[in-house]
Write a sequence for this structure.
């Protein structure tokens, strides 16, 4: 079955709006990370969040490991927030398993 | 401290050729993993090296191989290139692999013509 699933696949926002991205992960995956892929392809680390809540500026993330989901919150979105957001977790075989991503477009 | 460095950034190769990509991890990190990203398949795990040994392998043909040196730098080789090998290849550096935070390089974009 699907080990890491993200929703929504696409999201269009007006600048200044808030958004929530969701990542569901199976029992075989742990130690979630959130990434933002920049236009040049590099995956930028946002959060390493096996459980609990972390905040970094306008971004915050919460992982509820017992319920197998993680949320990424973006507040007061800016056009520079556009791009693809990935969550990924380590499986028991030592592989980082990625979701399919959420493509975010923030309009001015 | 320096991040993960991948070279080259861009490559154009002809079908049938071979290619070698390089990844220098963050100092002190012993695990290097490689991923292939294509529009259709997303991000897929190729293999992981830890202390010069391949520790994990994904579902890719034997044309894809790699190695790791004593300084933890890793190389990935693809032989007999096919058009479908065109992709962004990303490497990840982490302290010990599974269950530790992974950091990615800028990627190598390979085009096979």
């Amino acid at each position: 079955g699907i080990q890491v699933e993200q929703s929504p696949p696409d999201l269009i926002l007006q600048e200044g709006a808030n958004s929530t991205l969701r990542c569901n992960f199976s029992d075989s995956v742990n130690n979630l990370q959130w990434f933002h892929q920049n236009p040049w392809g590099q995956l930028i680390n946002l959060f390493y969040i096996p459980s609990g809540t972390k905040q970094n500026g306008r971004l915050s993330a919460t992982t509820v490991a017992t319920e197998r989901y993680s949320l990424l919150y973006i507040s007061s979105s800016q056009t520079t927030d556009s791009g693809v957001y990935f969550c990924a977790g380590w499986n028991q075989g030592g592989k980082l398993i990625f979701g399919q991503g959420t493509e975010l477009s923030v309009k001015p | 401290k320096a991040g993960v460095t991948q070279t080259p950034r861009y490559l154009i190769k002809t079908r049938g050729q071979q290619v070698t990509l390089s990844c220098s991890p963050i100092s002190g990190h012993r695990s290097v993993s490689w991923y292939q990203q294509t529009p259709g398949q997303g991000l897929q795990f190729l293999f992981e090296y830890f202390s010069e040994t391949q520790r994990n392998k994904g579902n890719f043909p034997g044309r894809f191989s790699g190695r790791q040196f004593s300084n933890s730098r890793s190389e990935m080789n693809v032989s007999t290139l096919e058009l479908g090998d065109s992709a962004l290849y990303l490497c990840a550096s982490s302290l010990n692999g599974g269950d530790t935070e992974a950091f990615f390089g800028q990627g190598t974009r390979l085009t096979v013509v």
Notes: Chain B is about 0% helix and 55% strand. The interface with chain A takes residues 33, 35, 37, 42-43, 45, 48, 55-56, 58, 88, 90, 92, 97-107, 109 of chain B (CB under 8 Å). The radius of gyration of chain B is 13 Å.
